[in-house]
Amino acid sequence: MAARRGALIALEGVDRAGKSTQGRRLVQGLRAAGHKADLIRFPDRTTEIGQLISSYLVREKDLEDHTVHLLFSANRWEHVPLMKEKLHQGITIVVDRYAFSGVAFTNAKGNFCLDWCKQPDVGLPKPDLILFLHLSPEEAAERGNYGHERYESSSFQEKVLQSFYCLMEDKTLNWKTVDASQSIEDLHREIKSIAEKTMEEVQNKPLEELWK
Ligand code: TMP
Ligand code: MG
After folding, report:
1. Could you tell me which residues are beta bridge partners of residue 8?
2. Rounded to whole angstroms, how far apart are CA atoms 38 and 31?
3. How far is residue 188 from each of residues 24, 25, 28, 72, 136, measured CA to CA in Å?
4. Is 27 helix (H, G, I), strand (E, B) or coil?
5. How far from chain centre, in Å, is Cα 206?
6. Domains of the chain
7. Closest approach atom of ligand 1 to CA 151
8. Which of 15, 113, 147, 187 is the S-S candidate for 182 at Cβ 3.0 to 4.6 Å?
9. Mind giving me the DSSP string for 152-194?
10. Which residues form the Thymidylate kinase-like domain (predicted)?
11. Helix 154-168 vs helix 99-107: angle between axes, to the nearest 10 degrees?
12. Tell me: the pLDDT tens digits for 23-75?
């Protein structure tokens, strides 16, 4: 029998929904329960491509919109060989944002259709589970001001949310929406239980390709 593989779990959602906190807690919780698990955060600002993306986000550099979209995608592709290796070694990978953020943010700019936005990410490892941390714009506002990076405004975030809703209509993907207004601990427990169920279900199934 082939070795059991790890699951690919993506965390998506609007800014301040708690993706990064929950990503860290999930990996800690899974490890404490005896699973092998790693976290990858996209964009990964540590690579050369990631540094370009970061300088764009902090407004040090202006990049043309198509160009930056492709750089975000390239920043995912540069991780794919290692991600596949780990998944096949039985390591579950939690990604803090993935191709869905890539599509939702560029599509929210208004002049890029969903289909164009998806193309560069077609064929990436397909997540076994996409957890959408849902927080209403009002609740997000209560969590304090946005930072100063590009995209951090409530009007733009509202458009991003609408793009996420369009992506969620794709029933070939395993979207699960969770209520991100709960306490950190309650949300963590809910997410960990959904993640463990998915890991169990997919361990003997082949890894698929996204949007193919
Ligand atoms: P972060 O705040 O999670 O570090 O993400 C940085 C910003 O980059 C955030 O506003 C979302 C945006 N983004 C894209 O525009 N495209 C992408 O592919 C990804 C992963 C993030
Ligand atoms: Mg941010």
Report:
1. 93
2. 9
3. 10, 7, 11, 28, 19
4. helix
5. 21
6. 8-203 (3.40.50.300)
7. 10
8. 187
9. -SHHHHHHHHHHHHHHHT-TTS-EEEEETTS-HHHHHHHHHHH
10. 11-191
11. 120
12. 999 999 999 999 999 999 999 999 999 999 999 999 999 999 999 999 999 99
Residues 97-129: tens digit of each pLDDT: 999 999 999 999 999 999 999 999 999 999 999
Cα 111 to ligand 2 centre (Å): 23
Residue 87: closest CA among 155, 37, 28: 37
And the tokens for 28? 């800690």
What is the Rg, in whole angstroms, of the alpha carbon atoms belonging to the chain?
17
Expressed in angstroms and rounded, the spacing between residue 30 Cα and the centre of ligand 2 is: 25
Which run of H or of E encompasses 137? helix 137-142
Pairwise CA distance, residues 38 & 178, whole Å: 21
Sheet holding 37-41, edge to edge: 37-41, 92-96, 8-13, 129-134, 175-179
Rounded Cα distance between 163 and 87, Å, is 29
**Which residue, judged by its Cα, is nearest atom 1 of ligand 1?**
43
CB atoms within 10 A of CB 182: 14
Cα dihedral across residues 2, 122, 156, 78: positive or negative? positive
**H or E stretch covering 115:** helix 114-118
